[in-house]
Specification:
about 475 residues; alpha/beta; Aspartate Aminotransferase, domain 1; Aspartate Aminotransferase, domain 2; 3 domains; transcription regulation
């Protein structure tokens, strides 16, 4: 799926390219080429996108066509642009910079390791009483076989109420319980995606979702998010949908992972309308929807704008409650839920009844649990921001108003090298390229604020020392980090 970038769109992405560092020492064409390479490296300009014609870009930037021609020539020479006479020019990366989208791992039980690769909280104190209460409820189910492909009725009812309470009327028949959000996504892909089909995702995006799409042999196109608010460029996002006409789009509009951006209600409505117009299905990941901070008012659920069963929503208990409780769900039309159940029986039959009963009791206490989580995360976020400002002031961070992660723009394309060095110093990091395709996003690093305050401060201290040493010593040998979640 190839997207075409118009001249005014690329001009908006380039912004004040004349003011880039070192601009006064570079001719115009070199500065323009460097700015376009920067957009590619940061994932804001997708790979395989057709750039505007030289004349069109020159008019949009109000510069001479000769300058654009020279910039395009330099990009071709550096391996960032491929051109064919009469057909146009497409973005690419030099062959030796490509990176596979696989390699997701299992965490090591290393008590001395400060793990910033996993964006998830420890279990809340309410979990153990909920488990004890669930065990007392279990005898009601012991007389049956225990297989409930769509989930036990009381959990489906509880999940449906959470949507209705958010202004999206939902019946239990529209809910399917899964073994976590990742399992939910896998089931949706089995039902809606054919191998080789086109899928649109954000860049950056959730690594495990990218891995699931790679496993289904999806042809992935990206919409690059800006590091700062609002993140999504509405014109580019909707234009990519119209031009590429993907069969599926996987998006995280609620405190996007990893950037923390929150999509506006207006864009959600336009997104759903455009998806319907081009025949695309939307898979909306709401993993972080409960974790608004700073009193942020949440927009309506994306599915509330859906009138044609184009939106399938996935969510779960991992982020607001506990990752060890493998309970997720899918919200879709009732007929879609039945088709998902038919697809599921060939995979894993059903979710554990006891775990579902624990989830019922936790959801009954959601106001108390979620309020405590929000207060905890707000405090930890502010400590992490303060530590970064004190120890790494050159790094640029947009303050997220929800979710559990910071998306830090570093002072150079060093994310992978920093992660390798940090592993040796007892800090596990999730480097930027893990959240993108083909080796982009080296200037970025995801930093969750889910660890205790003291651990966050210690982690930043170690990272700052490593960053200082990185310019003075050789790079350490490669060591694969653990889970990114």
């Amino acid at each position: 799926m190839t997207s075409q970038i118009r001249g005014n769109q690329l001009a908006r992405l380039l912004g004040q390219w004349h003011a880039l560092p070192g601009r006064r020492r570079s001719p115009d064409y070199a500065a323009l080429a460097a700015a376009i390479r920067g957009l590619l490296a940061d994932g804001r300009l997708p790979l395989g996108a057709r750039l505007p014609a030289e004349r069109e870009l020159a008019e949009a930037l109000r510069i001479s066509r000769t300058t654009v021609t020279a910039a395009y020539r330099e990009l071709r020479d550096s391996g960032h642009l491929a051109s064919r006479r009469g057909a146009g020019s497409w973005t690419m990366l030099p062959g030796n910079h490509r990176m596979a989208g696989n390699g997701l791992w299992t965490p090591l039980d290393d008590r001395d390791m400060l793990d910033l690769g996993v964006a998830a909280l420890a279990a809340p104190p309410e979990l153990l009483p909920a488990a004890q209460a669930a065990a007392e409820d279990l005898p009601r189910y012991l007389g049956g076989a225990g297989y409930h492909p769509t989930g036990i009725s009381e959990l489906r009812e509880a999940v449906a109420r959470t949507y209705s309470n958010r202004g999206l009327p939902t019946s239990p028949e529209q809910i399917m319980v899964t073994n976590g959000t990742q399992h939910a996504l896998d089931l949706v892909l089995r039902l809606t995606h054919n191998p080789g089909g086109s899928v649109l995702v954000e860049a950056p995006s959730y690594p495990n979702a990218l891995a699931a799409l790679h496993a289904r042999r999806a042809r992935i196109a990206t919409h690059g998010l800006a590091p700062d608010e609002p993140g999504w460029d509405a014109d580019l996002l909707l234009g990519t949908l119209r031009q590429g006409r993907p069969k599926l789009a996987y998006l995280i509009p609620d405190f996007q992972n990893p950037t923390g951006h929150l999509m506006s209600a207006e864009l959600r409505e336009r997104l759903v309308a455009t998806a319907h117009a081009v025949g695309a299905d939307l898979v909306i990941d709401e993993s972080f929807v409960d974790l608004s901070l700073d009193g942020t008012v949440m927009p309506p659920p994306t599915a509330s704008f859906d009138r044609h069963s184009r939106v399938v929503t996935v969510g779960g208990m991992s982020k607001a409650y506990w990752g060890g409780l493998r309970i997720g769900w899918i919200r879709a039309s009732a007929p879609q839920v039945q088709r998902l159940a038919a697809a599921r029986v060939g995979v894993d039959m059903a979710s554990p009844v006891l775990d579902q009963l624990v989830a019922v009791h936790l959801l009954a206490q959601s106001p108390t649990i979620v309020a405590a989580r929000r207060a905890q995360l707000t405090a930890q976020r502010d400590v992490l921001l303060g530590a970064l400002a004190d120890r790494l002031p050159e790094w640029r961070v947009t303050v997220p108003h929800g979710g559990v992660t910071l998306w830090a723009e570093l002072d150079g394309p060093i994310s992978s090298a920093l992660a390798r060095a940090a592993e040796q110093a007892g800090v596990r990091l999730a480097p930027g390229p893990r959240f993108g395709l083909d080796g982009t996003l080296e200037r970025f690093l995801r930093l969750p604020f889910t660890l205790p305050v003291a651990d966050l401060v210690e982690a930043v201290d170690r990272i700052a020392a490593i960053r200082y040493d990185l310019d003075r010593v050789g790079r350490p040998g490669w060591s694969e980090p653990a889970v990114i979640a």
